[in-house]
Specification:
This protein is α/β, with parallel strands linked by helices. The chain folds into 2 domains: 6-167, HUPs (Rossmann fold, 3-Layer(aba) Sandwich); 191-259. Helix content is 45%, strand content 13%. It has 11 helices and 7 strands. It has a 4-stranded parallel sheet, sandwiched between helices. A 3-stranded mixed sheet has the order 5-6-7. Helix 2 packs across helix 8 (157-167) and helix 5 packs parallel to helix 6 (137-144). The termini are far apart.
Length: 264
């Protein structure tokens, strides 16, 4: 008898973990983690799954549409909630605990929406690798009683990507798309103008084929971060002069380049 692949065994284990919960809602961002979790939940609970997606101005342009495409491919239509983090003072202040406050607010809203629809458990796509990182938002999950089947089943980021590829998810190799607030210097208040500059900058870099780039707004300094394999191209004279001119045209006085972690 042919042995099952590691990915098939892993997905079965994830489905088993999800099966422990009845009447579930899934926090669905459109990233590979929440997509795999949603696929497992749908496999187990079918159309009884409530997928919740928060649409905010802190998302990178196009991320919402990509998330909806992934959900549609899974046969799911998420409940989309229009949210404005600028109206949450503790988030807009952009302290070291911004992510905690934002996650707490977001998941309070998700829990309320889930309860209104008779869903008793909210599932989140945190994976096991995330537990070893500095992620203030994880404290909010614990305090609110959010369950994390991927992390609880020992799914590392590599396992998530491999299993998502095996499952046929189109976004299995999607770069991490953290919210644009992470590009703003800490303790500098979040504003629509700053986020708009970041969005313009990353759109420009994507046009230059820098996948998974980061355009960081650090006051008068603009820091461009790309994947390690793209760094030599970033600092090539012709490309760098073009980027430098673009950034100064946005009002930055200094521009520097560097690399970023694969999932950073």
């Amino acid at each position: 008898m042919m042995e099952e692949s590691a990915e098939a065994v892993g997905f079965a284990a994830l489905c088993l973990a999800v099966r422990r919960f009845a009447r579930v809602a899934v926090a669905f961002s459109g990233g590979v983690d929440s997509s795999l979790l949603l696929a497992a939940a749908l496999e187990v609970h079918g159309d009884q799954v409530l997928a919740l997606h928060g649409r905010t101005p802190l998302q990178a342009p196009g991320e919402h549409d990509k998330a909806m495409a992934v959900a549609a491919a899974l046969g799911c239509r998420p409940l989309v909630l229009e949210l404005d983090p600028y109206a949450w003072p503790e988030v807009a202040a952009n302290s070291e605990q911004r992510c905690y406050h934002c996650k707490y607010r977001l998941y309070q809203i998700f829990l309320a929406q889930a309860a209104e629809r008779d869903r008793v458990v909210l599932l989140d796509g945190t994976n096991f690798s995330d537990l070893s990182k500095d992620r203030p938002g994880l404290a909010a999950l614990r305090e609110l009683g959010i369950r994390t089947p991927l992390a609880e089943s020992g799914f590392t980021k590599e396992m998530v990507r491999a299993t998502a590829r095996w499952r046929g998810l189109a976004n299995w190799d999607k770069s991490a798309a953290s919210c644009l607030a992470t590009r703003i210097m800490g303790r500098q208040p979040l504003t629509r103008d700053k986020i708009a500059l970041v969005a313009r900058g990353e759109a420009f870099l994507l046009e230059k084929k820098f996948k998974g780039c980061r355009f960081r707004h650090w006051g008068s300094l603009c820091r461009i971060e790309v994947r390690e394999e793209d760094y030599p191209r970033l600092i090539s004279l012709a490309i760098w002069l073009e980027i430098d001119e673009f950034c100064r045209g946005l009002g930055f006085e200094r521009v520097e380049g560097g690399t970023r972690p694969p999932e950073g």
